[in-house]
Amino acid sequence: MAPTLPDPIRLGAIEAPNRILMAPLTRARGTREHVPTPIMAEYYRQRAGAGLIISEATGISRQGLGWPYAPGLWTAEQVAAWRPVTAAVHEAGGRIVAQLWHMGRVVHPDFLGGAAPVSASATTAPAHAHTYEGKKPYEPARALREDEVPSLLDDYRRAAANAMDAGFDGVQVHAANGYLIDQFLRDGSNRREDGYGGAIANRLRLLREVTAAVVEAVGADRTAVRLSPNGETQGVDDSHPRELFVAAARALSSFRLAFLELREPTFTGTFRQASTEPVAPAIRAVYDGVLVLNSDYVGATAQAQLDSGTADAIAFGRPFIGNPDLPRRLEEGLPLADDDMATWYTQGVEGYTDYPAAA
């Protein structure tokens, strides 16, 4: 008999009381120095009923973070400011892991003192970057040099260790959505001719090395990875996504991670899917571990993925914005509240901590 969404599940070292995870959601409530703020503790505390909270994407370094007011994990001040957040979640009976983020070519030079961002190759992201002065066109990235990779891996190790020091229960490597690792994975953005480019095995190399570095820092049972198989994401695409992401999942399976999360959207927009054939079932066939699916699920469609055996748990994103008590609402069949898109990235409590729980 298939498990249900309210059933508990073990995610590596973490015992989750249900299979309704909170997906990472950028909310821009930090400071300009990327330090978490006190209202973030209340926001995450309100959502502690999730089986596991995956934090908003959190920068591993100055080089890797180009989103206004997003938090980081590379300074002592940032680590100290995260502690009340994780403590609030734990006091409410919850669990939380930090998502580790390097944005690669979608960091605007404004965040880097005018320096060019780094990517797999010298390419430019489409559309516009969010900056403190408003939206600006992306600028050309330079290719990350091979001799810079060790320093990048050190940044991941340090951020992972800092996350544990800040009280997180584990970390998730953000290897999805057109950010740095995804830029290395896909042949549309990776035009390298060295050991990090060309064949799929080479394009997987940075993902494997980053995962190994994070596992070294915090342990495999406290490490997760997020991938976004199939379709263009922020201008990053691949000519053979099924083959690429099945190979990536097979490579990650050997790490014995806490879980692998797949963001595979079915809608069009900034993150859009080019094919209607999902890759998740093929990944399920090769990935020997807990598999979490994310994007566009409601209660019935989420349960159907558990029933089919494709997923072990489901990560819900946007529904958690307006429904801090989402697990209860799904279990009891209560109506879901809408959220206000205009307040997604503002800096105040409106549209952040003022959504009530169901009566």
Folded structure, characterized:
With 359 residues, the protein is α/β, with parallel strands linked by helices. The chain has helices at residues 38-46, 76-91, 149-165, 180-185, 200-203, 205-218, 241-253, 280-286, 299-308, 319-322, 326-332, and strands at 9-11, 14-16, 20-22, 53-59, 96-101, 118-119, 128-131, 134-137, 142-143, 171-174, 223-227, 259-263, 291-294, 313-316. It starts with 8 loop residues before the first strand and ends in a 27-residue tail after the last helix. The protein has 11 helices and 14 strands. The longest helix is centred in the middle third of the chain and has 17 residues, at 149-165. The model is unreliable at 267-274 (pLDDT under 50). The strands form 4 sheets. It has an 8-stranded parallel β-sheet with strand order 3-14-13-12-11-10-5-4. It has a two-stranded antiparallel sheet with strand order 1-2. The radius of gyration is 19 Å and the shape is globular.
